[in-house]
Amino acid sequence: MGGRAVTVSNDSELEEQIAGWRAYVERRPEIHGGDADELEDHLRSRITELTDAGLQEDEAFLIAVKRMGTLDDVSREFAREHSERLWKQLVLPAEPDAPTVARSRRELPVALFCAVLAALAVKAPALFGVGLGGFYARNLGLFVLAPLAGYFVWQRRVSPRVVAVLTGLFVLGAVFANVYPLDDDSQSVVLTALHLPLALWLVVGVAYVGGEWLSAQRRMDFIRFTGEWAIYYVLLALGGGVLTGITVNVFSAIGVNTDDFVGSWLVPCGAAGAVVVAAWLVEAKQSVIENMAPVLTRVFTPLFAVALLAFLVAFVVSGHGIDVDRDVLILFDVLLVLVLGLLLYAISARDPLARAGLFDRVQLGLVISALLIDALVLVAITGRITEFGFTPNKTAALGENLVLLANLAWSAWLFFGFVRNRAPFARLERWQTGYVLVYAAWAWVVVLVFPPIFGFR
């Protein structure tokens, strides 16, 4: 099965179907690049046999997928989804072998161990007399994301070379977050606190994909994981809030004050440990239930589109410019990031072979609205910089909005081509997964370069 290259046809539709099947298979954590190559070779052999027997290529593809033995359950589910053109994702696990079962039983203990490490890392500085403020602002991302990366290193059996790269990037972040002489109330500390976690989260992504960061499909897998992780973390936070409230009130009923314990231990340790636990929950349910992020995307995309259009209308009618201060800039950046998040998770859940529909046009309207708002914010920022000069905050805001503007502009163009049936949907997906590298580069620039450029202000 493995040694020869099998060709079936140059038909673009068939190649897109095979690419979609391969992307589906590669989402399985136990399938690696070499396994996927071998399975694809097997699939192409079966398609060739069936087309030689007189079947049409689309029929041969579906039958060949159903007959795949190694991933029979997964392939059969894929064939059902493909033929019904479902937008959702549902992955049912193949029957695991004994080593896989044994390893899966260790996943929860390993995840809990990494969660405890994250909790201890957050508390350790305070135990040695380090107070809150600048130190925690600069290093919190390091404390909680390093154990998460370690969890994925174990789970994905990452190679020593990739482990060395991951370690080097975390050390780089730790050194430059602490080596610069920054006052706790400086703008550079705030920028580091905001951008270092983003940079390190993308480093975690390298561990999540097992070092296959150059694969667009694997980057999309990490984007899906990010959305699912965020949902689970919020759910854990809500549950933790209920637990905290009950704990405080139950103990106060018997005259025991737990405020110090809750504030000093329960909340910070629980919040840190939940970072890893949420990741474990995503992985544990990955092969059992439907992803939630795409469902929420379907709900909130029209709502955000209406809200942004209403803002643009109000802006034109009122004639009032945008107030440019740090909180407002952060608010607009969060808004634009949410729009891109909705776009990303809709892309991740969409059948790339399906024709453009109403929801795609709603998304195009959302992207265009966000693009116009980004342009308005850039005009306001440029005016403030022209009047008062460059500061770390304004320069970071300018750069971030330019980065977002470029993404939104090209996304709008690709979406327009898709809804007009002039461009394949795959181009938009490749653009979004490739642009993740731009976000990573910008985050590292802010952390490493901005403090010395602006005199450590």
UniProtKB/TrEMBL annotation:
The chain crosses the membrane at residues 110-130, 136-154, 161-182, 188-209, 230-256, 262-282, 303-322, 328-347, 359-382, 402-421, 433-454. It comes from the Bacteria. This is DUF4153 domain-containing protein. Keywords: Membrane, Transmembrane, Transmembrane helix.
